[in-house]
Amino acid sequence: MIDKFGARLVASTSLSCLGLSYMTLAASSGSIGQYYLSWLAIAIFGLGATPVVFTRVINGVFEERRGLALGIALSGAGLFAFVVKPLAQFLIETGGWRVAILIVGTMPIVMACPMVLWGFAGLRSRNVDAGLAPRIASEGMTAREAFRSRSFWLLAIVFIPMSLAVAAPLPNIENILRSLHLSPTEVVQLASLVGIAAVAGRLLGGVLVDRFWAPAVGTVILTLGAVACFTLSLDDVSFAMACIAILLLGLVSGVEFDLMAYLVSRYLGMRSYATTYATLYGIFVVGAFVGPSLFGYAFDSTGTYSGILKACALLLIGGATVVLFLGPYPTRKA
């Protein structure tokens, strides 16, 4: 739909429907069916408010500083996640949880949607079609060509282990830290570093891919993630070691989506960007969905996270090696 109708229409519609879907949670009556239905609506209508839309616009407008622009744009989610939790707590304490849900649900409608309509319209007025300059829009592969290409499958091979090895440990990070016999205060302090490191990772990753060959940057980042996973798998981990590992893991989690967006735009092009990026994004999300359960199963079976963390380190090393096979950026003519 984004490739066919443009980012402006899809994003504004999705943001409005996402807010309304979220607000239906305020009408929860205790019915599990109603609860699932609300979350199903959030998941479906929120698809047009994912990085697929915004990275397409950024990639289509920026060339020289594309990586930094992606990093700044995608940092918004991390910054809002940092702000919205204390805001929600304040709203719950003052007006109750239903009021909190209604107010948070209005934000995509009254804040994000008007900004998209105004900002993307501004792009159009500068002869940019739905956020894409005509020359850039016609560059690259069709969806069929992309799905048959070596570059697409190399990217898939890279991001499948990355989704398992990076997205899976984070939901379990408090339990992982507790298993290392750190104090409750230390666990809270370390877990709070993840969000800060993720935002820093988005910005740093953006700067690095602008200056250096992106697959090399990916190799370094994934290797750092492997070091983090291996460190957390050790039996004796000090607070300082755990702090470094958490910062590295947060850094890698911050780089993942903008690195994916940058590599897709460089190797597959912008002609069918939304379709190709969304497919890889979907692959990543499936891995991120399965991974946390695997961590829980591994801990229940063995009583430790050590084995699965070492497996994640190996997966990241494998991804760090495979990404180098992408080769030089292709040179295309519109």
Order of helices and strands: HHHHHHHHHHHHHHHH
How many helix segments? Answer: 16
Instruction: Give the tally of β-strands.
Output: 0
Largest sheet: none
Q: What structural class do you assign from the helix and strand content?
A: mainly alpha
Shape: globular
Helix content: over 70%
| Rg computed from alpha carbons, rounded to a whole number of angstroms | 21 Å
Q: Please report the distance between the alpha carbons of the first and last residues.
A: 22 Å
Give the low-pLDDT segments. Answer: 125-131
Detail the topology: elements first, then pairings.
Blueprint: H1 2-5, H2 7-23, H3 32-45, H4 51-61, H5 66-95, H6 97-125, H7 134-137, H8 143-147, H9 150-167, H10 173-179, H11 184-191, H12 193-211, H13 214-232, H14 239-267, H15 273-302, H16 306-322
What does this structure look like?
The chain is an all-alpha fold and 334 residues long. It contains 16 helices and no strands. The protein has helices at residues 2-5, 7-23, 32-45, 51-61, 66-95, 97-125, 134-137, 143-147, 150-167, 173-179, 184-191, 193-211, 214-232, 239-267, 273-302, 306-322. The two termini are 22 Å apart.
